Amino acid sequence: MLFTPGRRRNLLSAALIALVGCAAAPAPAWAAPIPSAQIDFGGMMRTYRLHLPAGGPPSGLVVNLHAAGATGADQAALTHYDAVADAYGFAVVYPDGIDYSWADGRGASVPDRQGVDDVGFISTLVDRLAAENGIPRGRVFATGLSAGGFMANRLACDRADLFAAIAPVAGTLGTNVGCNPSRPVSVLATYGTADPVVPFAGGPMSGRGGGSTVVSGPAMVDRWRQIDGCPAPSDEVLPSTGDGTETHRIASDGCAGGTSVVFMRVDGGGHTWPGVPEILPVQSVGAASRAFDASDASGRFFASHGR
Prior knowledge:
By secondary structure, this protein is an alpha/beta fold. 29% of the residues lie in helices and 23% in strands. Helix 3 (81-88) packs parallel to helix 9.
């Protein structure tokens, strides 16, 4: 997304007020959220926010990755994922990227140009949290918006042994980034056809850190279908909500290893997280779909696509 961290946090303040009602009831002391925690990776202190469910050990772990120009706390507020994680018994972690972005391989961010190993950082963080909280190793998932969506795809490409399923929103891969996962990964991908930031048809784009050339949304989905050996998909149109968009749920189930690839194609949709209020003008990021909630949709998808 194309905005400064300060501007985004100011714009998020109103959303934070609205999202207070989505917060879960106070959890027991052992499951209290950690506002800010640190882990030493490669001699650098990296920060993250962790939320644990009440009532027992987590049934899985969701890594929720912020957009460029944002923080993990911003992503938690935008996606109301603490409440979603509670509903499915998941732990959810919101890491912070260096310079408010990720080294997703495109070469368009400061951490990419500095040689930061975000695949290694996030994988190490997952290992630590899984060991400390008794999280099943076959139930680790990733989602993210924009730069976070690019990073989620890269994690699945590079660490398919670790991530059972991903749910990228408004982020594909750079055309220069290889994707040869060691095993099938389930994918729930959401892309808007009118995205003014990450072009739905692929090609050149300008981000916070600079320019890159990206894979189109349909091509990214096709790549995952090929990787997972999927059958031909079905196409379901979700009921209209009168928001000016139309969402097609294009699903391939019964892929290799019991995986699925689902494409939420939001016709007329922009660079947004479906189901939450736009925090920037529609003229800047395009329309958000109200036909589904991307947070709850990914929670349900993850719950049924562990290993």
